[in-house]
Design a protein that fits this description.
This protein is mainly α. The chain has a single domain (2-185, 193-343), classed as NCX, central ion-binding region (A middle domain of Talin 1, Up-down Bundle), CATH 1.20.1420. Helices cover 81% and strands 1% of the residues. It has 14 helices and 2 strands, in the order H-H-H-H-H-E-H-H-H-H-H-H-H-H-E-H. A two-stranded antiparallel sheet has the order 1-2. It is globular.
């Protein structure tokens, strides 16, 4: 029954796109419809990822989900750069790193319960986020005084972005080879999985629709923020980060609820690492074709990323999941969200 309802709700995605572009619908209504449309898309991406993971193993499955799930964020970020919303771009990307580390991983552990995680893969993801946070200090610290969007900081962000992309490619290559070898030694599952081609096609189609829906959500957020009195920074770091990543967030929770906690954790951690060492530098480099973007993150953003990765790493150092760890991570996210709210705009 639930699956039939979710299949029916998939029609909300195209409906939102039509209403946004061809019908004069109020922004508040569009925001609500777009948020609802992301729910079945989240389920579909999670379902397709689990079918793909049947052929590749949880490590590669988490990488696939992170890749498809982060595509809307890249599109949203470039749209925001084109509109001159640099603070929104930086805030949404920072919020995505923190959200995956604390909120998504927390809910995955809460719904998944006790289980064994891939400790080596988890620690690799934590190390990547920590490395990115340290390197972001290079353009960030000078930006704490004066204009954070000055050209000199955008130029200073270039070598940082290039180094992170090289690290990402190297680590991903090694990690995917390792996961493939582990998968070959695993016992075959009795799951009636889709073919790999079908799973990837569904992931691609769902990601495209999610990108359009997420874009609608973003351009209606300002009206929403004005109604409720929230700062642009908070909207970017919390609201945009969550809704722009909603399908991926939901996918991890769905997978965890079905008992595959290892894959769910891989989705959350791989996504966080991918945003930190791939998506952020990729946006910084691609932005030069539109309007140079400086990675001049605010002190509260650097503190949030650094604190989140240390806290999550300490909780999961032993490679075990539990519901209390999930609650601790969610509580930490609430604390970070409060800090973002109190920080306000520059």
């Amino acid at each position: 029954m639930t699956r039939k309802v979710l299949y029916a709700l998939l029609s909300l995605g195209p409906l939102v796109v039509i209403l946004d572009r061809f019908v004069g619908v109020g922004e508040t209504t569009l925001f609500i419809l777009a948020a609802l449309a992301l729910i079945p898309l989240a389920w579909l991406i999670g379902d397709a990822t689990e079918h793909a993971a049947h052929h590749t193993g949880p490590g590669v499955g988490g990488f696939l989900n992170a890749t498809f799930g982060n595509a809307p964020e890249l599109i949203i970020a470039l749209f925001a750069v084109n509109q001159g919303l640099e603070e929104v771009v930086r805030g949404s990307l920072t919020g995505s790193v923190v959200g995956n580390l604390l909120l998504v991983l927390g809910f995955s552990l809460l719904f998944g319960g006790n289980g064994q995680l891939d400790r080596e893969s988890s620690l690799t993801s934590f190390a990547l986020v920590a490395l990115a946070t340290v390197l972001f200090l290079i353009p960030a610290i000078p930006g704490w005084e004066g204009d954070p969007d000055r050209d000199s900081l955008a130029i200073l962000s270039l070598p940082v972005s290039i180094v992170l992309l090289i690290v990402y490619v190297a680590v991903t290559w090694v990690a995917l080879r390792r996961h493939r070898q582990l998968h070959l030694r695993e016992e075959p599952s009795d799951m009636r999985a889709w073919s790999m081609r079908v799973a990837l096609a569904v992931l691609a189609a769902a990601t495209v629709v999610t990108a359009f829906v997420a874009e609608t959500l973003v351009h209606t957020l300002q009206a929403f923020g004005e109604d409720v009195g929230l700062s642009d920074f908070f909207l970017a770091a919390v609201v945009v980060a969550i809704v722009g990543n909603a399908a991926e967030h939901g996918g991890a929770v769905v997978v965890a609820y079905r008992g595959n906690i290892k894959l769910a954790a891989e989705i959350a951690l791989a996504s966080s690492a991918q945003v930190a060492v791939f998506l952020i530098p990729a946006v910084a480099l691609l932005a030069w074709a539109i309007d140079p973007l400086a990675l001049s993150f605010r002190p509260v953003e650097i503190a949030a990323m650094g604190g989140s990765v240390v806290f999550a790493a300490l909780l999961l150092y032993g490679g075990r999941s539990s519901r209390w760890r999930g609650v601790a991570l969610i509580t930490a996210y609430v604390a970070v969200a409060v800090a973002f709210y109190l920080a306000g705009d520059r």
